[in-house]
Amino acid sequence: MRVYLTDLASYNNGNLVGEWVSLPMSEEELSSKIQEILELGSATDGYEEAHQEYFITDSECEFMEVGEYDNLDKLNEIAEAMENIDEDGVKAINFLMENQLVKDIFEAIENYEDSVRIYENQSMEDIAYNFIQECYNLDDIPNIISNNIDYESIARDMEIEGSYYKVDSDIYEYIG
Fold first, then answer.
1. 39, 125, 126, 162: which one has the fewest Cβ atoms less than 10 Å from its Cβ?
2. How many Å apart are CA 105 and CA 91, to the nearest integer?
3. Residue 124 in contact with residue 144, Cβ under 8 Å?
4. What is the pLDDT of residue 68?
5. pTM of the predicted model, to two decimals?
6. Are 153 and 172 in contact (CB under 8 A)?
């Protein structure tokens, strides 16, 4: 996650004083970086005392929307929690958040591995077929039955159940 921190007083005076900051970082580094930006803003505006307020004017984040006045300490904590999560984990967390299946991003981070299964480039029929294969040994069932299983109908019923969501070319299963 990267955020562009801007000195608010300088911005209000018509100057854009700020810097891109990559999160996560230690609390001391973050505090120091904020102070550095505010002092630069004060110097640019010709004041001796450092300015006191900053805001976020831009961000680069693949797992959440960042607002102008979001709490920077909380963003840093989120970035730290997301630091070692792979691409599929990020997709699962985004899915949980976008569908409001969790109360906040921390719950999504804590539970994504146990509550979301992603079927990449599969159809609901593929999922239904695999489900039947996992649950029943089709070799033990007479061919007249196994050859006439209606996977399309099973897929439709599974989809109606409400725990499968189509996202782009993938199917997400919310296990809960």
1. 162
2. 13
3. no
4. 95
5. 0.78
6. no
d(CA 167, CA 176): 18
Tokens 């489900």 label which residue? 131
DSSP conformational letter for 50:
P
Q: Which helix (H) or strand (E) holds 173?
A: strand 170-174
What CA–CA distance (Å, rounded) separates 92 from 162?
17
Residues with Cβ within 8 Å of 155's Cβ and at least 6 positions away in sequence, in order, are 123, 124, 125, 127, 128
Residue with tokens 């505010």, as numbered in its chain:
38
Would you tell me how many other CB atoms lie within 10 Å of the CB of residue 73? 11
Taking alpha carbons only, the member of 32, 29, 78, 80 closest to residue 70 is 78
Distance CA 47, CA 51 (A): 8
pLDDT at 50 over 90: no
Q: Which two tokens stand for residue 34?
A: 């904020």
Helix and strand numbers, DSSP H then E, in the chain: 8, 6
Over residues 94-111, the pLDDT tens digits come to 999 999 999 999 999 999
Give dist(CA 60, CA 139) in Å, integer.
52
Rounded distance between C-alpha atoms, residue 141 and residue 144, angstroms:
8
Token code pair at residue 144: 């007249």
